[in-house]
Here is the input.
Amino acid sequence: MRVISVANFKGGTGKTCTVCNMAAVLSDLGRRVLVIDADPQHNTSDFFGAEADGITLSHVLLGLADPRWADVLSPTGREGVSILPADMDLLTLDLASMQAGGGSEAVTRMRSLIEEQRKADAFDYVLIDCPPSFTAASVAALSVSDDVIIPTRVDRFSQTGVGELVEQIRQLLQVEPREMGWKILITMADGTNLHRQGAELLRSSFPTGSVFERAIRNTVKVGEATFARLPVTEYAPRSTAAEDYRELVAEYLRAVGDAGPYKGGELNGD
Here is the structure.
């Protein structure tokens, strides 16, 4: 089981859209997916129709729900995809962490949650939608992640968020050395010269291989699909964004050694 955090300290870069569409593509390929919504805005939870009146991530990280409970996770209505939804109480988690002098308890509880899922062998991939800020929930998410995908638009502010997040990842790994990969995903791409120049600058600003080859092209179909609460691969399967998300997942699976086809609970590279 691989855990992937999707994060950027700048909002509006396509984090939630990336989580929802990657989950859909992975499930279409037969992978079992758990989505964890770590953003108090709970857009991912809303997309999947997850009710916030049940157990949410804040219950788990605040110690109000045991990660071993069978009802911690909720179905999404999409075969092969389950979710642990978010609610605004994640803001309470940040206040509690400040009062306690840190978010170590949230980290411990997130690790327990992921460990329980590994023991159960219920999922092949976990996708965590992180908030656009360095919160107790995002720290907990990064602490359990094998990989971090950093969606970014080709603009100054979004790329500043990328640099800040990469620096935070490096600092976390200095405190607790372990293997964790990160890679930048260009979103809302267009064919203008300005965008191409910005993308080239982004690729040259980070080590070779730090940016996905596949970018997500800008199309109104993404916004329409979001309103319809459908992945763009289902709402407009022939759109450029649908093609891009399918190719993005294929590129990621190749990178982690998951060559498929799906065979039971075993994945190459797990």
In short: The chain has one domain: 2-255. Confidence is low (pLDDT under 50) at residues 262-270.
